[in-house]
Structures are given as structure tokens and as C-alpha cells.
Design brief:
The chain contains 17 helices and seven strands. A five-stranded parallel beta sheet has the order 2-3-4-1-5, with helices on both faces.
Length: about 400
């Protein structure tokens, strides 16, 4: 797991020493017999520092380690009504905070700088960069924003993305990470697992369980808002699925820290892709437009298909009972593939023509046999195909 800045045990004494060094010059007091020069002034500064250092330390630590700011720290940091930090102390505290935050993640207002929750950016990305998925754009934005903005959360938000290959499931997971966290998928608060890569051998499931449980706990302890992504979730071992179940259940509130804890679990799966294609094809044949398709058309069929699946333990697991929304990704059509091709050219800073987009879209296979309406691979591999020599032209 990527490291998270924790409170070093040596920093308390260092803060006290620096406060003394940064203390303002004062008038030399009368010295007692036998004192070396300046001894009385030093004793007074030590007494002052001792009286105030606990409050300074509490304020400083709540700024740079908000996740460790306990109730007693907050109480210590709150000054009495007739008390305020003297100017020299405020300057000292600012110097220390600026120095420490130059090397570590912290915000002066107590926020976790790793968490951005840019819902405006998320809305724009889902609208502009995600093609052919009006249901996903509307539902993901609404449920994620509602969840993260609610005053108190008593359970994790569990979303299950379903659809054929290349329809955008992984892409939407990346957009969520990018807009909810400053460092996107690289954030300490985000963990992404690819089943066949992270949990390849059923013989080692006990080791996987211990590692996964430890990683989830560590991530949640270091971040008040976490995102866990499980790609190819239908291939997860039943033991791992059962381990995840309790993390999705509704929990009783345990005070302020429990109230502010947020966790989002995303499960990405190809399960249900065939039934989604079947329902969409039927609706289009009956005269419905793609944009008129609603969750009422797809939701019940999709959930029933997942729960009765015999090819995977995912549908029979405890996890499925805790899923808040099963979100269908519709099969993509020819003009959606062209849009993906255009985005791929632009992202690689390549010139293209309309003929290039058509040529690339025609390279993909389409089905079903009746109408060849939907791309069999969606937009998967489109970006690699833009590097073909014929169209590889730099600006």
C-alpha cells in the first residue's frame, strides 16, 4: 500500500524547541544570585512554552493530520473565550505548518487535501467524454453526489457496473477517481483490484483474504473517504466476496468519526451484458429511441440475470444483497465508436479526418447477426488502432 503521512513521535519535542527558538526577544528580568546571564528569562520562557505548547501542538497536529485529530485534541485546540495566540506564536505556528506541509499533504483549514470531490468536473466528463451511456451519466453523478454530500453515512455506497466489453465501465471508474481525488487512481485513498492479476490462484485465497482485509482497514484508517474498485468482479473467489460483505452492511453510528466516514465500492463485471443487449435491441425494434430507455426497462431484468447466474459466485454472494445500484452500460453503436476514435486521436495529439474515423470504426466487429447494430468490443482497443502507420501523423 502507498504510504500515508502519520504523526511522527519526535515532532512534539521538536515543536517545543522551535517555539522557544522562535520566541520574541523580551526585556531581561532581574537575575537571581548565582544565575548565569539570561537564566531567569529562559525559565520564564520555559514556563510559558510549557503552558502553551499543548495548545499549539493540538492546533498544529489538527492541521497536518486531520485524520488523527481526536476529540481531546480539538478541545485542547479550542482556546478559552478570553485567550488568543500572541502574534509571535501565530507566526511561529505558521512557519512550522508551512515547513511541514511543504513535504506532506495537509491543509490549513483541516481538510484532507487528497479529497477534491469535483462534481462539476465529474458531470462534465460524464457528459462530454462518455459516449452512449445516458443512464450511467445521470445515475452515477446523482447517487455519488448525494452520498458524499449527506450529513451522515451509515453504510458504504456499493455500485455494480454491468455491460459488455468496452462499454465504459473501467473508464467511468477512472473518471470517479480523477474527480473525487486529487491524485486520481494514484491516491492513497483509492485502491483498484483486477481479479485475475491480484487474486489469480484459488490455492492462496486465505493469503489474499488477509492481505485484502488489512489493505481495506489501513486505507479507511488513513482516509475519511475511500474508493475501492474491483474489476472483473464476477471472477472473485467466493471467500473474497464474503469477506467484502460486512464492509458494505449498514452500521450503527459510533460518534462523530463514524458519521464522517465515507466508502464507495465499485464492482465492474461483464455479467448481464447479454440481457442488456437483448432488452435494448428489443426496445429499438419496437420504435423506442436509445435516449428513451430507462432504468425501469433494464434494472429488474439485469438484477434477476445476475442473481440467477450459474457461471459465477458473484450473484449468490452476500455482496450482491448489499449492492445499492446495478448500473447497466448499453452496447455501443457505430457512431459511438467513431466518437471514441476521435477522442483517441485528440488524446494522442494526432491529426485525423472523417475518413480516418470511418476507417477505424469499420475495423470493429458488430452484432448480433440480425442487424449488426452493436460493436462487439465497444470502444476497446480503439486507442491502440489510432497508432496504425497510415494515420499516425503528428501536429
Amino acid at each position: 500500500m502507498r504510504g500515508t503521512a502519520r504523526r511522527p513521535p519526535w515532532l512534539g519535542p521538536l515543536l517545543l524547541l522551535l517555539l522557544l527558538l522562535l520566541a520574541p526577544p523580551g526585556r531581561e528580568a532581574d537575575e537571581a544570585p548565582g544565575d548565569w546571564p539570561g537564566a531567569r528569562r529562559l525559565r520564564e520562557q520555559l514556563r510559558t512554552a510549557e503552558a502553551l505548547s499543548r495548545r499549539y501542538w493540538a492546533r498544529f497536529s489538527c492541521v497536518v493530520w486531520p485524520q488523527d485529530c481526536e476529540d481531546e485534541d480539538a478541545e485542547a485546540a479550542a482556546p478559552p473565550r478570553d485567550w488568543s495566540l500572541p502574534p509571535w506564536a501565530r507566526r511561529s505556528l505558521d512557519i512550522l505548518t508551512t515547513w511541514y506541509c511543504h513535504f506532506h499533504d495537509c491543509c490549513k483549514d483541516g481538510r484532507d487535501c487528497r479529497i477534491s470531490n469535483n462534481f462539476t468536473g465529474l458531470e462534465s466528463d460524464l457528459r462530454v467524454r462518455l459516449h452512449g451511456q445516458h443512464l450511467v451519466s445521470e445515475l452515477v453523478l446523482r447517487v455519488v453526489r448525494d452520498y458524499l454530500e449527506m450529513p451522515k453515512a451509515d453504510k458504504a455506497l456499493a455500485l455494480s457496473f454491468h455491460g459488455g466489453s468496452g462499454t465504459g465501465k473501467n473508464f467511468v471508474a477512472q473518471l470517479l477517481a480523477k474527480n473525487l481525488y486529487r491524485d486520481g487512481l494514484k491516491s492513497d485513498c483509492v485502491q483498484m483490484f483486477v481479479t485475475v492479476f491480484h487474486f489469480p490462484n484459488p490455492k492462496y485465497v486465505d493469503m489474499y483474504k488477509e492481505w485484502l482485509l488489512s489493505l481495506i482497514r489501513e486505507t479507511q484508517q488513513s482516509c475519511n473517504q475511500t474508493l475501492f474498485i474491483f474489476d472483473e468482479a464476477e471472477k472473485l473467489h467466493p471467500g473474497l466476496l464474503e469477506l467484502l460483505g460486512p464492509h458494505l452492511e449498514r452500521k450503527a453510528s459510533e460518534g462523530h468519526r463514524a458519521e464522517t466516514q465515507r466508502a464507495i465500492f465499485l464492482f465492474l463485471s461483464n455479467l448481464g451484458g447479454n440481457v442488456i443487449t437483448e432488452v435494448v435491441l428489443g426496445l429499438l425494434k419496437d420504435g423506442w429511441s436509445r435516449e428513451e430507455i430507462t432504468m425501469e426497462h433494464l434494472g429488474p431484468r439485469l438484477q434477476a440475470e445476475i442473481m440467477k447466474s450459474t457461471d459465477s459466485g458473484f450473484g449468490r454472494s452476500h455482496v450482491v444483497k448489499e449492492i445499492d445500484f446495478f448500473i447497466p452500460f448499453l452496447p455501443l453503436e457505430y457512431h459511438h465508436v467513431r466518437l471514441c476514435a476521435r477522442d483517441a486521436f485528440l488524446s494522442q495529439d494526432l491529426l485525423y479526418t472523417e475518413e480516418d474515423l470511418d476507417e477505424l470504426a469499420n475495423m470493429m466487429t458488430y452484432g448480433p447477426e440480425q442487424g449488426h447494430l452493436f460493436s462487439s468490443q465497444g470502444c476497446k482497443s480503439v486507442s491502440q488502432r489510432t497508432a496504425l502507420p497510415k494515420v499516425f501523423v503528428h501536429h
